[in-house]
Amino acid sequence: MICLVLTIFANLFPAGRAGVQERTFLAVKPDGVQRRLVGEIVQRFERKGFQLVALKLVQASEELLREHYAELRERPFFGRLVRYMGSGPVVAMVWQGLDVVRISRALIGATDPADAPPGTIRGDFCIEVGKNVIHGSDSVESARREIALWFSPKELLCWEDSAAHWLYE
Hints:
The protein is an alpha+beta fold. Helices cover 42% and strands 17% of the residues. It comes from Pipistrellus kuhlii (Kuhl's pipistrelle).
């Protein structure tokens, strides 16, 4: 409960910082897990200075995936996407930090790896859009919805990051 209160307070009063303290949902997709890229991906977010508040390895159900990708249900690739995401384990994560949603999208790179520059996760590790290694929330609203789908409130840890004073003014 205290974690929820602190998160709400941080969002209402960002203490004059350049950005807003927020959370985002990331998932290393089955191809990323099978290719053993989880550590590399986690390392990139840690090195950036973001705080990991939840992580789990799951075999996502079809029901969860249909709800997660509900806004894409009318697209021709929807069935393929749900099958692909359910084809193996997924590493679901929640990260916290200033402007974490926007910055995470930049770290991940464009959805189509052909458009993702080198240095981004997709630019470095992906070849085709159908197997693009990682999902990241595209907005704060999407992040809230996706976090609530994949994690219970008890799974989200609130802990003090001792490196925070080295990252933020």
